[in-house]
Design brief:
- The protein is an alpha/beta fold and 378 residues long.
- It contains ten helices and 17 strands.
- It has a six-stranded antiparallel beta barrel with strand order 12-15-14-13-16-17.
- The mean pLDDT is 90.
């Protein structure tokens, strides 16, 4: 679903320009339609320690070059404090209680479409980003009638044709009004097509590698990020089936349900299958495909609908960023809660993860809910 000029004429458009190839091609896509959007670089990085700075100087150089190439204004918006106060607080609260957070999901909701909108985005009709996602408006009056948000036209978040790069799972917690303002000009491309456009246009970011890891973390890895805020808390690693202590860990928050690598245990592979936060114990199971590493039925709560339409009984879902969509049924249990009944057992289901819900054709995204910290059903 390529962006059409007639849909954008007369609109004030802001582009979130990071210096990477994806957002650079967003500027090109709008410029080739004769538009000159204002570009914004969101500054989020540590100012008290250089090792936490995420290549900001290089980002700025590339963003400046791309904006200048197409005659666009570039402005830096400082959201450093909002990121560390909101996204970091969310992340640390989750890992402290043994859950598995997704900082990138909350960065989109709280920063890219949140704090930025409060500071500058409110002056614009649309906010364009380099996400691999698409949107469409519902043509069906019956769907309009289901809309609980009072929107004149029901807007849907839809998946991108590139299954590996699709980022709808990272956008499934944004607010309805944020979705209304969002446009994704490269969402109809495959990743290699974006690279080809960038090379054809001689963009400085054409060969730049994709960012890895958590949004805006920079050179620091995830465990160092967690260690900085929570420190270490040594505890036992116990084999689930036998109750035997087979090793020790430095803090349950450094490990996630389903994890196989990085345990430092001999005779593996070993999978993390459970956490006892109160006792600070990690339970692991031995083998290449232990049954205890899978769940087929599990509860989710606080389901967040992107446009006010609740999901049907039959769905597809994701619980992590993968190309696969898993078929399942949803059983409503009240107050935004559901029990998920997957058609087949799913590996590494963990409390705190977002269960992202799609239609059966995995085209439209309904939204997401958190997997509950309650004891997961067998």
């Amino acid at each position: 679903m390529m962006i059409r000029k007639e849909e954008l004429e007369g609109k004030r458009i802001a582009v979130l320009l990071s210096g990477g190839v994806d957002s650079s091609v967003v500027v090109y896509e709008l410029a080739r339609l004769g538009l000159h959007p204002d570009c914004f670089y969101i500054k989020i990085g540590a100012d008290e320690n250089d090792e936490w700075d995420c290549s900001m100087e290089e980002d700025m150089e590339m963003a400046t070059a791309v904006a200048a190439k197409y005659g666009c204004r570039l402005e830096v918006v400082d959201c450093h404090r909002e990121y560390w106060d909101q996204v970091t607080a969310y992340t640390m609260n989750k890992v402290r209680t043994g859950e598995t957070p997704n900082p990138d999901v909350m960065c989109n909701r709280l920063i890219k479409f949140g704090a930025f909108n409060e500071k500058r985005g409110h002056d614009y009709d649309l906010i364009a980003t380099g996400h691999y996602a698409q949107t469409e408006f519902s043509p069906h009056p019956s769907e309009e009638a289901q809309n609980s948000l009072g929107q004149e036209r029901l807007k849907w978040l839809c998946t991108a044709p590139d299954p590996v790069k699709d980022q709808t799972d990272f956008l499934a917690q944004i607010e309805g009004w944020q979705l209304q303002k969002a446009i994704f000009p490269i969402g109809h491309y495959m990743k290699d097509e974006v690279r080809q456009v960038a090379e054809h246009e001689h963009l400085v970011s054409a060969k730049r590698k994709d960012s890895q890891g958590i949004c805006f973390l920079g050179k620091i890895n995830y465990n160092e990020y967690v260690r900085r805020f929570l420190g270490e808390l040594p505890g036992d690693v116990v084999e689930l089936e036998t109750g035997r202590i087979i090793g020790h860990h430095r803090g349950h928050w450094f490990h996630t349900i389903g994890q196989r690598k990085g345990m430092g245990l001999g005779g593996g592979p070993w999978f993390v299958v459970r956490k006892d936060v109160n006792q600070n114990i990690l339970y692991v199971s031995h083998g290449y495909d232990p049954q205890s590493a899978y769940k087929q039925h599990f509860p989710i709560h606080a389901f967040h609908s992107l446009n006010g339409v609740l999901p049907p009984e039959r769905i597809t879902l994701k619980i992590r960023h993968t190309p696969e969509y898993l078929p399942a049924s949803l059983e409503p249990t009240g107050d935004g809660c559901y029990t998920v009944h997957a058609d087949a057992p799913i590996h590494g289901v963990a409390p705190g993860q977002f269960c992202v819900v799609y239609d059966e054709q995995h085209h439209r995204c309904y939204g997401s809910g958190e997997i509950s910290i309650d004891t997961l059903l067998a």
